[in-house]
C-alpha cells in the first residue's frame, strides 16, 4: 500500500484523500455561502385568483396563457403553488429579479405524467444578458439540462412526487451546474447555452409545451446546501435541520426530501425542516434536544388521572342538640380519623395513573388505542383516490346502492354481496368449529 | 391528617419513589413515542382506508369476531391439552 511521509509521520493515502475531499467540500461550502445569492424568492402564497401572470412581477411570455395558481397541491401542504394544467397547450410565465453574477436558485417541482404520449415538456429557463441555463422535465420522469445541442439526464423522478432541482452559476468561470433530487446528483460544472459568457442571470421563465400532463412548481428560493454538512454544529449554523432519521438509522442534515415519506405525510416529523411545517403536522414539535432546533415527534401524553370516587361528607350535626349532637360529633370524629382527604385520593389515582406511562402498560395502552381506532374505522367512509393513465379520480362505490329485486323484494347490490360474503364466512367458521369440537373426541 | 391519609401517603411514597422510578418507560430498540407513532401514523391511516374499502364487501366486525373466537378456541384447546398432560405427569 503506497504511503507518504509528512513531518516524519506516516499518513495513509486513504486518509489524505478523505482530508482532500473534506477540504474541497469546506471550500465549496464557504464559497457558496459567501457568494451565494439568488435572483428572487417566491413561494406564491400571497397570490390570489386563477392566473400567475400579473401578480408579484410575473408576466406573459411567448404568447402563451399564464401558469395558474394552485391552492390544493403545494409543497408543504399549505399556501399556493403554480401549475401548468394539462388541458391547455402551452403555458408561459416569467419574472425578472435582481442581476446576479454568481448565484444559485432552486425550485420544487412535481410532474403528473402520462405515459402514453411523451410530448409534454416543462422547462425552467434561468437567463440574463444573452445567456441561458435550461432545465427540462418530461412527464416520464426524466429531468435533464440542455447543452445547446443535446439533452443530458441528471436524475429521474417519480411522477406525482415533489422533487428539488437547482441551478448554480459562476460568472468567473462562465459555468453553470444543474442539480436535482439531492445535492449528490448534479451535472458538474458545464457551459450555459447561447452566449456562453455569463455576465449575470436575472430572469426565470416557466414554460410548458404540450398538454399531456400537469406540472407544479413551488418554493423558488436560494439553494441550501445542507446535505454537505456532517456535524450538528455546522448544520445548525447553516440554518439546516440536524436530526436522527429512524428510517435511515443515521443522523442527517438536509432539507431536501422528495420521497413520499416527506414532511406532510403522516407523522414524519424528522423530515420537516422548518418550524412552520413542523408544527402543522400532528404530533410534531419544533424544539431543541441538544443538537439545535429540529422537528421531533412529541412524546405521547397520558391524561392526568382524576379520582372517580369522592370522599363522602361527614354527617351534619348542626341541627342536632344534646346527646344526639354529642353522639353525632363522636361518630364524625371516629369517621374522620379513618376518612382520607380528597387530595390524598387524587394523589393515589395519579400514582396508579403513572403506571400507564411505564413499560409495558404504555405500549399496551397504545395498542389498545390502535385497535379501538381501527374498530371505529369499520364504519368510516373514506375517499380512495386513484390515477389511471394520468387521469385522477376517486374509487366510486355508488353502484352498491343500486337496487335489484330478489324474490319480489327490493335489495341493494351492497346488501346482496354483503350477505353472500357473510354466509361464506359463517360456513368457513362452522367448518373450523366442527373440526375443533372433534379434537376432543 | 387522618390515619387513612397517613396510609395513603405511605402507599403513594412507596410507588412514587421505590417502584415507578425503577420501571422503564421505553424499550431500547423501539421507544414508546416511535411505537405509538407507527401505530397511529401511516399504519393506522392505511388500515383505515383499507378497511373502509374492504368493508364494502365483508362484514368485518363479524369476521374479526369469528377470527377472535378461533384464536381463543385454539388457545383453549391447547390449555386443555396442557392440563391433561400435567394430570398424566402427576399420575405417572
Radius of gyration of chain A over all CA atoms, rounded? 33 Å
Number of separate structural domains of chain A: 4
Instruction: Quickly name the level 1 CATH class of the largest domain in chain A.
Output: Mainly Beta
Count of separate DSSP helical elements of chain A: 7
Q: What value does the average pLDDT of chain B take? A: 86
How far is the N terminus from the C terminus of chain A? 76 Å
Major β-sheet annotation of chain A: 8 strands, antiparallel
Question: What is the overall silhouette of chain B?
Answer: flat
Q: Roughly what fraction of the amino acids of chain A lie in strands?
A: 25-35%
The largest chain-to-chain contact, stated as pair and per-chain residue counts, equals:
A-B, 59 and 52 residues
- How many angstroms does the end-to-end distance of chain B come to? 60 Å
Fraction of helical residues of chain B: over 70%
The percent range for strand residues of chain B is under 5%
The CATH architecture classification of the largest domain in chain A is Sandwich
Description of the structure:
With 441 residues, chain A is an alpha+beta fold. Chain A has four domains: 3-34, no CATH class; 58-223, Jelly Rolls, CATH 2.60.120.200; 228-297, no CATH class; 302-364, no CATH class. Chain A has helices at residues 13-35, 232-237, 275-279, 322-338, 342-354, 361-377, 413-438, and strands at 3-6, 9-12, 58-59, 68-70, 81-84, 91-100, 103-112, 121-128, 131-138, 142-146, 151-156, 163-170, 175-180, 186-190, 193-194, 201-209, 214-221, 242-245, 250-253, 284-288, 293-297, 385-388, 391-394, 403-406, 409-412. In chain A, strands 3, 6, 8, 9, 10, 11, 15 and 16 form an eight-stranded antiparallel sheet that branches. A seven-stranded antiparallel sheet of chain A has the order 4-5-17-7-12-13-14, with no helix packed on it. Chain B is 78% helix and 0% strand. Chain B contains three helices and no strands. Chain B has helices at residues 3-19, 32-54, 60-91. The longest helix of chain B is centred in the C-terminal third of the chain and has 32 residues, at 60-91. Chain B is flat, with a radius of gyration of 24 Å. At the A-B interface, helix 4, helix 5, helix 6 and helix 7 of A face helix 1, helix 2 and helix 3 of B.
Amino acid at each position: 500500500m503506497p504511503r507518504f511521509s509528512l513531518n516524519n509521520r506516516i499518513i495513509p493515502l486513504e486518509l489524505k484523500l478523505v482530508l482532500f475531499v473534506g477540504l474541497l467540500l469546506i471550500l465549496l461550502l464557504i464559497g457558496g455561502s459567501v457568494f451565494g445569492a439568488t435572483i428572487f424568492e417566491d413561494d406564491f402564497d400571497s397570490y390570489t385568483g386563477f392566473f400567475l401572470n400579473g401578480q408579484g412581477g410575473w408576466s406573459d411570455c411567448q404568447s402563451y396563457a399564464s401558469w395558474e395558481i394552485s391552492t390544493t397541491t403545494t409543497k408543504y401542504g399549505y399556501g399556493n403553488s403554480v401549475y401548468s394544467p394539462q388541458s391547455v397547450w402551452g403555458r408561459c410565465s416569467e419574472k425578472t429579479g435582481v442581476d446576479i453574477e454568481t448565484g444559485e436558485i432552486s425550485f420544487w417541482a412535481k410532474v403528473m405524467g402520462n405515459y402514453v404520449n411523451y410530448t409534454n415538456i416543462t422547462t425552467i429557463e434561468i437567463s440574463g444578458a444573452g445567456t441561458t441555463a435550461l432545465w427540462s422535465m418530461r412527464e416520464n420522469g426524466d429531468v435533464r439540462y440542455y447543452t445547446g445541442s443535446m439533452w443530458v439526464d441528471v436524475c429521474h423522478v417519480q411522477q406525482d412526487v415533489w422533487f428539488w432541482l437547482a441551478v448554480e452559476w459562476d460568472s468567473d468561470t462562465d459555468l453553470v451546474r444543474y442539480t436535482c433530487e439531492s445535492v449528490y446528483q448534479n451535472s458538474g460544472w458545464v457551459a450555459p447555452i447561447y452566449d456562453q459568457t455569463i455576465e449575470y442571470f436575472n430572469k426565470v421563465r416557466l414554460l410548458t409545451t404540450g398538454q399531456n400532463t400537469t406540472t407544479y412548481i413551488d418554493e423558488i428560493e436560494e439553494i441550501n446546501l445542507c446535505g454537505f454538512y456532517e456535524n450538528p454544529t455546522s448544520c445548525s449554523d447553516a440554518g439546516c435541520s440536524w436530526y436522527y432519521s429512524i428510517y435511515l438509522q443515521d443522523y442527517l442534515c438536509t432539507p431536501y426530501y422528495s420521497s413520499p415519506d416527506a414532511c406532510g405525510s403522516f407523522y414524519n416529523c424528522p423530515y420537516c425542516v422548518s418550524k412552520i411545517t413542523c408544527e402543522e403536522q400532528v404530533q410534531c414539535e419544533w424544539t431543541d434536544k441538544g443538537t439545535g432546533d429540529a422537528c421531533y415527534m412529541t412524546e405521547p401524553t397520558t391524561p392526568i388521572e382524576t379520582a372517580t370516587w369522592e370522599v363522602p361528607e361527614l354527617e351534619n350535626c348542626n341541627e342536632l342538640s344534646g346527646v344526639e349532637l354529642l353522639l353525632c360529633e363522636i361518630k364524625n370524629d371516629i369517621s374522620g380519623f379513618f376518612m382520607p382527604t380528597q387530595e390524598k385520593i387524587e394523589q393515589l389515582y395519579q400514582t396508579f395513573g403513572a403506571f400507564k406511562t411505564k413499560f409495558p402498560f404504555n405500549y399496551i395502552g397504545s395498542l389498545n388505542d390502535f385497535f379501538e381506532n381501527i374498530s371505529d374505522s369499520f364504519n368510516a367512509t373514506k375517499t380512495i383516490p386513484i390515477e389511471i393513465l394520468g387521469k385522477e379520480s376517486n374509487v366510486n362505490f355508488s353502484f352498491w346502492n343500486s337496487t335489484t329485486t330478489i324474490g319480489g323484494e327490493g335489495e341493494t347490490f351492497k346488501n346482496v354481496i354483503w350477505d353472500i360474503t357473510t354466509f361464506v364466512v359463517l360456513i368457513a367458521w362452522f367448518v373450523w368449529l366442527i373440526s375443533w369440537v372433534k379434537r376432543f373426541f | 391528617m387522618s390515619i387513612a391519609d397517613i396510609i395513603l401517603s405511605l402507599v403513594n411514597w412507596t410507588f412514587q419513589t421505590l417502584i415507578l422510578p425503577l420501571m422503564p418507560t421505553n424499550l431500547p430498540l423501539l421507544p414508546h413515542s416511535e411505537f405509538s407513532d407507527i401505530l397511529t401514523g401511516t399504519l393506522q391511516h392505511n388500515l383505515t382506508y383499507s378497511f373502509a374499502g374492504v368493508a364494502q364487501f365483508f362484514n368485518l366486525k363479524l369476521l374479526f369476531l369469528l377470527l377472535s373466537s378461533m384464536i381463543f378456541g385454539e388457545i383453549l384447546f391447547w390449555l386443555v391439552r396442557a392440563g391433561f398432560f400435567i394430570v398424566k405427569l402427576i399420575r405417572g
